[in-house]
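Letters spell out the chain; the tokens describe the backbone. To illustrate:

===
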Amino acid sequence: MDFAKSMIDKLNVEQIKIELMNTAYANDQTFISRINPRILFIWYALFGIAPWFIHNEVILFGLLAATILTTIMTKVSRLILLILILGLLGQGGYLLVASLFFGGDWSILQPLLMLTVKLSVVSLASITVFCSMTPEKLSVGLLSIGVPGQVAFSISYGYRMLPLLLEEYNHVFMSYRLRGKAPSKKGILYWRSISYFIKLAVISFYPLLLSTAKRARTTVEALETKGSKNAFKNPKVKKLKLASLQMGRNDFAFLFMSILYFTVLFVTGNHYYQ
């Protein structure tokens, strides 16, 4: 009970906002955060995209072990890991119940387990890569692989805006609670209270969408006055931004070890099934 109470106390809007800020900006002291973004994109292609085309259990579990290690090295927020675990358990449980309900049997557990392993590998690889880069580093990295400047800036802008939008959503939600009237009778299993809070959560999105559109318009107008449209297409500006992306010894070592591990794992997995 004490553990559950402590977890509930930590799950407030302010704490979630702090966790988001730490995830976006406070992971720049780890080993993986110092790796060149282009190397991280190549690594993500191996560990975040390739698992969808692999059905060998040995290879998938090997990739899972590697992504767990890199996630630990990234020092990811516990809140993000908790959301990931709940999502995987919820999706796996939903598919299991649906399969049994429509006439399946317990033999569905094996393919469901492999699907969960694939989702875990892809999710942990995504967390490793995108939680290791600050919005500025992610924007420059995307720009270096040919992504248009407007798209790269929009992604980094979304990173910056997310904590602010979360805080504003909480303000709108609390204002509706102050002006509204909660049900006098909670009902069986608190269904009236649950229905009331779900309604408030839904209608709170509409003012937030209006505020987001207003913020985006203000940002675009401010950037236009500074000549951002020409800067996105100017090769000199792009060259200046990419000057900070220097390849070092650690970058090549990380890429070499990743490719070597993937190759050894692939050969071992195929040999095991022969």
Observations:
- The first helix runs from residue 2 to 10.
- The CA atoms of residues 3 and 191 lie 26 Å apart.
- Confidence is low (pLDDT under 50) at residues 1-5.
